[in-house]
Amino acid sequence: RDGFIYMEEFCEFIKCPMSDYVTHIFNLTNALDDYERLDFGEFIKAIATFAMLQGEEILKLLYAMFDPDGEGFITNPQLLEILSVLHPYYRGRTTRTLKEFDLPRTDKVTFTMVKNLHVQYPNMFHPAYHFQDRTRKKLFGLKWWERKLRKYMATKQKLRSAQMTSNQVDQAKQVRDDRRARKAARKKSRIALARADKSQFVRALYIAKNVADAMMPDIDVGGGRSLNV
After folding, report:
1. Is 195 exposed, middle or buried (0-12, 13-18, 19+ CB in 10 A)?
2. pLDDT at residue 183 tops 60
3. How confident is the model over 125-159, as pLDDT tens digits?
4. How many whole angstroms separate alpha carbon 87 and alpha carbon 89?
5. What is the DSSP annotation of 130-165?
């Protein structure tokens, strides 16, 4: 009892095999120390991050094992390595399955291709989801995590709505600024035209247009050639 948690101990606790996938999960939050140990705080942070993933986020986690820099593709051998990590005792079977899947000859496998593979052969990535399921069951229970996920999704929706509101405010401000700039340009143009025109009547129309524009800055007052400026 040295105060640390070891990945092998955790895997034994949840009844799942130790693998590079498990190491990748804990590396996700830089939880491991130089001796690949976890203190309690780092362990909880890593598990909470992993357990809150949903749907294709698990696939993205797997994909990131060989695309840590987000280049957008992995190679065919790397995809085989992912499946071999998930199915260490069935490498031949995964190879045969991949032959049925139309992998690109350019040796670049995109995340979309991995999603399509998951749709066609869901059992291929099942161990990754099973590991999360076992983690949730053994730590606090499924119902506890479901409640946390509902709260998380509600908070996420509020943040998204707040962001939309903020964007709408910014857009409205930009519209107002654009209208003020156009009004100032119209006013300057009318003053120049009024000074250049000898007709008192036309000059009066320009002045009237500027007054109306000042009173109703978002509305153009039409009527006559001089008022269309």
Report:
1. exposed
2. yes
3. 999 999 999 999 999 999 999 999 998 888 888 87
4. 6
5. HHHHHHHHHTT-HHHHHHHHHHHHHHHHHHHHHHHH
Structural contact between residues 37 and 5, judged by C-beta atoms closer than 8 angstroms: yes
Cβ-contact 40, 1 below 8 angstroms: no
This prediction has a pTM of 0.66
Say if CB 78 and CB 64 are below 8 A apart: no
Cβ atoms of 149 and 98 closer than 8 Å: no
Place of tokens 């009318």: 190
| 218 has a pLDDT exceeding 60 | no
Angle at which helices 7-14 and 126-138 pack, to 10 degrees?
90
Mean pLDDT (whole number) for 36-43: 91
**Which residues 6+ apart lie within 8 Å of 27 measured at CB?**
none
